[in-house]
Specification:
With 449 residues, this protein is an alpha/beta fold. It has 14 helices and 14 strands. An eight-stranded parallel beta barrel has the order 1-2-3-4-5-9-11-12, surrounded by five helices. Strands 6-10 form a two-stranded parallel sheet. The protein is globular, with a radius of gyration of 23 Å.
């Protein structure tokens, strides 16, 4: 009799436990940490870890004329205009890097400055970039240069930009020219920033230039971005095999809003495949989205990871950004952009790119937060994730916070404030935010150990 009771009690317990697991999984199908139980100050980084911040030319330099300014005009968006007037204030801005204690700075070169008309080159502008690089090096800061961060000349856009494979030679010529001028001092290069964001925002959602909405074109652009990256990689490596060339890949995670929904799950898998999986396969196998791109295979010396959030997918996925309404779990905090802060996903993104088997550089991570109320916690959680991942053996070499200062946030204009420094766009005054102070002290503690 007592055996019978014991077996019933144990089976009851197991059934209860199982039900609990299933219930919890229903609520949070993806990993979720109890942050309150984690000591976020328990972090450590290797001595040679690089601390950085990231920017992009169109978002900070000011007074440009490129595909983006044309798009701002055409779509009646907020104008980038003077932006942070960084083209004139760069020396002061670089002092902010020094004051933070940074050892790497990721920025991009503006193609439209260097080749405003097809075939006519502005060497004075190239010289300014060259001076920037000298200045960074004199400060002990590694220049980390991106060749294409969403913007390019109008004449190239008019030829079809990345939508036409025949145009890739122009991108290659531009890249070679920059490389010839700067590679005696720049050892780390990103060819292209966020190929999937560029292609989906420009060709599916139509929110970025050229404002098109075509799945066929999106897939074409995705493949051409991979081809363009691979061409640049091969040429530059043949010129200087010792430089390190990578790409900045935005890994956004897609999780089903409802775990048991027959729709949410396949939607999440499909989007994850298009956004992340197809790209990784392209680099690992030279095959991408039904095309053979053999030169893409193993075309990375490092992978740049940009991580911001996860998207919860369901039946009603947006087809334009006006419709974008981000779902979040009840325990998650929404950032000002609308999407949730989900630091757990940073670890998953690291695990996702690890099979590429090259060192990882975190090329972007940050949060829109004008009041700086979320950024300190955001920073601490994400740095803790990196610290743990390094302890677990992942080869992560650097962290670049997005961004050094508030800047022109593309289709959102100046409404989204990502800066460690607040910028007053009337006076161009920069003020270090509390999170900037926090970042500085974390760097100081980590480097003085
Ligand atoms: C990235 C992009 C950056 C910046 C950031 C913040 O996708 O590379 O330029 O805008 O998002 O939203």
């Amino acid at each position: 009799m007592w055996e019978y009771l014991l077996i019933s009690a144990i089976s009851g317990l197991i059934a209860f436990k199982l039900a609990l697991i299933l219930y919890r999984r229903r609520k949070y199908p993806e990993p979720h940490y109890e942050w309150g139980n984690i000591d976020l100050d328990e972090i450590s980084f290797p001595d040679n870890f690089l601390w950085g911040a990231a920017t992009a030319a169109h978002q900070i330099e000011g007074n440009l004329s490129n595909n983006w300014t044309a798009h701002e005009e055409k779509k009646n968006l907020e104008k980038s205009g003077e932006a942070c007037n960084h083209w004139n204030l760069w020396k002061d801005d670089f002092q902010m890097l020094t004051d933070l204690g940074l050892t790497s700075y990721r920025f991009s070169i503006e193609w439209s400055r260097l080749e405003p008309e097809e075939g006519s080159w502005n060497n004075d502008a190239l010289d300014v970039y060259s001076q920037m690089i000298d200045d960074l090096i004199s400060r002990g800061i590694r220049p980390t240069v991106t060749l294409h961060h969403f913007s390019h000349p109008v004449w190239w856009e008019e030829k079809g930009g990345f939508a036409d494979e025949n145009n890739l030679n122009d991108f290659l010529n531009y890249s070679e020219r920059v490389f010839d001028a700067l590679s005696d001092r720049v050892d780390v290069w990103c060819t292209i920033n966020e190929p999937t964001v560029f292609s989906t925002m420009g060709y599916t959602l139509g929110q970025f230039p050229p404002g098109k909405r075509s799945i066929r074109l999106t897939l074409k652009v995705m493949r051409n971005l991979m081809r363009g990256h691979a061409m640049v990689y091969r040429l530059l490596k043949s010129k200087r095999p010792d430089v390190r060339i990578g790409i900045a890949k935005n890994v956004t995670l897609f999780d089903p809003l409802n775990r048991w929904s027959p729709i949410d799950w396949p939607v999440s898998r499909l989007l994850d495949w298009l956004w992340n999986g197809a790209w990784r396969k392209g680099i690992m196998t030279g095959k991408m989205l039904f095309a053979k791109i053999p030169e893409a295979k193993d075309s990375l010396d490092f992978v740049g990871l940009n991580y911001y959030t996860h998207f919860l997918t369901g039946l009603f996925m947006p087809t334009s950004t006006e419709e974008l309404e981000f779902a979040k779990r009840s325990h998650e905090v929404a950032t000002e952009f609308g999407y949730p802060m989900y630091a757990e996903g940073f670890r998953r993104a690291i695990e996702f790119i690890a099979p590429l088997n090259v060192p990882i550089e975190i090329t972007e991570n940050g949060v829109a937060d004008a009041q700086d109320s979320l950024r300190p916690e955001h920073l601490k959680r994400h740095l803790w994730i990196i610290s743990e991942a390094i302890k677990d053996g992942y080869d992560i070499r650097s962290y670049h916070h997005w961004s050094l200062m508030d800047n022109f946030e593309w289709a959102e204009g100046y409404s989204m404030r990502f800066g460690l420094h607040e910028v007053d766009f009337n006076t161009q005054e920069r003020t270090l935010r509390q999170s900037g102070e926090l970042y500085r002290s974390i760097i100081r503690n980590s480097t003085s150990k």
